[in-house]
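The passage that follows is intended for readers who have already worked through the single-chain material. We present the inputs for a multi-component assembly, then the predicted structure in tokenized form, and finally a short commentary. You are encouraged to pause after the input and sketch how you expect the pieces to fit together before reading on.
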Amino acid sequence: MERKEHFSRKRAAILETLKGTACHPTADWVYQQLKPQYPDLSLGTVYRNLKRFCETGQAVSVGVFDGFEHFDGDTSPHAHLVCRQCGAVMDVFGLSLEGLGLERLSHQMGCQVENASLTLKGLCPDCVKQEKSA
Amino acid sequence: MERKEHFSRKRAAILETLKGTACHPTADWVYQQLKPQYPDLSLGTVYRNLKRFCETGQAVSVGVFDGFEHFDGDTSPHAHLVCRQCGAVMDVFGLSLEGLGLERLSHQMGCQVENASLTLKGLCPDCVKQEKSA
DNA sequence: TGTAAAGTAGTAATCGTTATTATTTTTTAG
DNA sequence: CTAAAAAATAATAACGATTACTACTTTACA
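Having made your guess, compare it with the prediction:
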């Protein structure tokens, strides 16, 4: 009596595209990437599957920036940098939240912390260069 | 030849409401709070002023959760806990990002970090209690 | 293959947010 | 104390990312 997943070709392609990029794409970006290969792909399908991946833990939402939700196929804990100039979202590794004392704090507050996300805002390397040369 | 700000009564009331609550409200929440006292208040005015406060540094956006942008009148650096059960957004003080080495990292990456926000997800104290008693 | 469950395409609907325009409020000059 | 200019607002329409819906297609499995 258990639900059986029908793993479609398009679902696989969406997940593969998400896992294969480091650009933390929006639903529309994934859609545009796959459209040439799957001309009858529907944008709704991309939205539905991205949402599903987040629920099943195969992906995470990085957040909503400038009105667009960005996704990440890398579910390992790491931070992100959002560029205020070009809107790019980049991985930032090497910032461990282990030493912050989250466990002790959640015990003190009486809450339950299941996830911690660190988001930096500023300028990406490319936009830093452009600003210097200007 | 400089622009002069006309500080209206409603703008002051919106900022006061935002500064006077710890609930990290949405635009609509602020609107509902002020509606009894200002019956002709327009929701657009609340949106416009909240956006303006963020631009002028009088407030910050905590992020978009479940489709609603949440604001905070406390611009001092601190983290937030978003409850997945009831949607509440709470302040979390006592988590300093000073020791993470952001400066060294931004120098290594060649980027420019202007802001760092830490957002925790899980259960707020109230929902932890409810879950225990269930 | 055949059948039922799951998935998708195409389109309409939803709804938080923003833009627009006429009107009102605020500032400041005379 | 007026009055004109600048800024702000109310009311409404428009926008656009996301979701819902329905008929059709694909997948899993006997």
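Commentary: Helices of chain A lie at 9-19, 27-34, 43-56, 102-109, 125-133. Chain A touches chain B at residues 63-64, 81, 83-84, 90, 92, 94-97, 99-102, 105-106, 109-125, 128-129 (CB under 8 Å). How closely did your sketch match?
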